[in-house]
Design brief:
It is a multi-pass membrane protein. This protein has 418 residues and is mainly alpha-helical. It has 20 helices and no strands.
Length: 418
């Protein structure tokens, strides 16, 4: 009789855990820095004498430049290493966040937010590939889920420090705290190693000088386009809930305290969902897990708007389940995207498609508000979430990214493990 297999976590070395810690902290602090500005838009609008709508474009600005960071810092990561690119990205977005606190007018703040977006996207591209290539393939769904949970943790951290810091130092103090991620680079420099998968490709000198341009070739453009479509639909699915749900709850009679509590519970649902998605993905497969849980999320989305008046406890449970499924399953997307690219252009491919698709997150409040004027805010959130969830299921269910490999798969073996 063969000996029982050891638990998955005992099959990981210390270096595997260092890779997770460095990448996870990068994502946590990325989420922390990104969410900061959403708490102080009113203060910024007042100080710089602009409308709240104009101040809201600062959020869109961060989305608008993310594709640049994904494309070019991702290319840097493909050519010179995941760790080096990750250090550069963290330094870029942390110092740019600090400079936001020194902004002298609205347009200087806008420029600094554009730079923040570039750095954040670069960290996503480099950090995701570093972790996924470092961990054994059989547990990479867990790695992906753990990684994305950092973003939710960053949002919870921002919520925790917002009140005491703004009360003591004003809105600028919140951005000064944003320099903290720079300290992470010390740990990355000395505690995290380059993944062997990338080093092997680099030793063979396979990486193009600017891998982003390879994505525009006839071989890779169809793959990148299909994955971009998936990520656009994904952000269009999740961001109406993230950006418009607090406003909807207030419109139905919940005060600010109750709304904050409900959204905190919902965020916990996302956090636990990210963790659970990794275990499910390793058990039944990445693609199957994505399809099943996305379909299940539609049930909870419909339920949430049906129980709005049923009491805060019932609504809290429903919101928890919405984010546990709808957001939680997106923890598998870094793994799903990375599987479609060779190591020599994986960082730029993953970074570009994910962050270009994230533009939908910036647009969601706009088209959500427009649709709300016709059918009401609650119905608008539900319709947008359901429509784009079905779009995600269609892309993954029909396996469009893998089909798009077509000629690429025929000319050269490509790692696709769904």
């Amino acid at each position: 009789m063969s000996a029982p297999a050891s638990p998955w976590y005992r099959q990981l070395s210390r270096q595997h855990w260092h890779a997770l810690a460095g990448s996870w902290l990068g994502w946590t602090l990325d989420g922390f820095d990104f969410i900061l500005i959403t708490y102080v838009l009113t203060d910024i609008a007042t100080e710089f004498e602009v409308s709240l709508t104009t101040a809201g474009t600062l959020v869109l600005a961060t989305f608008a430049t993310r594709w640049l960071g994904g494309a070019f810092i991702g290319s840097f990561a493909d050519r010179f290493g995941r760790k080096t690119a990750m250090i550069a990205s963290v330094l870029l977005y942390s110092f740019a966040t600090f400079l936001c606190g020194l902004s002298w007018d609205f347009w200087s703040l806008m420029i600094f937010r554009l730079v923040v977006g570039i750095g954040m996207a670069g960290e996503y591209a480099a950090g995701s590939t570093l972790l996924l290539e470092s961990w054994p393939e059989r547990v990479r769904n867990k790695a992906s889920g753990f990684l994305v949970s950092g973003w939710a943790a960053g949002g919870l951290l921002a919520a925790a420090v917002y009140a005491p810091i703004v009360t003591a130092f004003g809105w600028r103090g919140l951005f000064f705290v944003g320099i903290a991620p720079a300290l992470l680079t010390i740990y990355i420099r000395f505690g995290v190693a380059e993944p062997e998968e990338w080093r092997s490709a680099a030793d063979r000198d396979e990486a193009p000088k600017v891998s982003f341009f390879q994505l525009l070739s006839r071989r890779w453009l169809p793959v990148a386009a299909a994955l971009f479509g998936l990520m656009f639909a994904n952000f269009a699915t999740t961001w109406p809930i993230l950006s418009l749900m607090p406003t909807y709850l207030k419109s139905t009679g919940y005060d600010e305290g109750a709304t904050g509590t409900l959204m905190f519970v919902a965020s916990l649902g996302a956090l636990f969902g990210y963790w659970a998605s990794g275990f499910l993905g390793d058990r039944i497969g990445t693609r199957r897990a994505l399809i099943w849980v996305m379909a299940l999320s539609l049930v909870f989305v419909a339920t949430t708007f049906a129980v709005t008046t049923a009491g805060s406890v019932v609504l809290a449970v429903s919101l928890f389940l919405v984010e546990f499924t709808s957001l939680g399953i997106t923890g598998l997307l870094p793994k799903y995207i990375a599987d479609h690219f060779d190591p020599t252009l994986r960082a730029s491919g993953l970074g570009t498609t994910y962050n270009l698709g994230s533009i939908a997150g910036g647009l969601s409040p706009v088209w959500g508000g427009a649709l709300a004027g016709v059918i009401g805010l609650g119905s608008a959130i539900g319709v947008l979430t359901a429509f784009w969830t079905l779009a995600c299921i269609a892309v993954i269910g029909f396996d469009l990214p893998r089909r798009a490999l077509g000629r690429a798969m025929a000319t050269q073996p490509t790692a696709v493990h769904n």
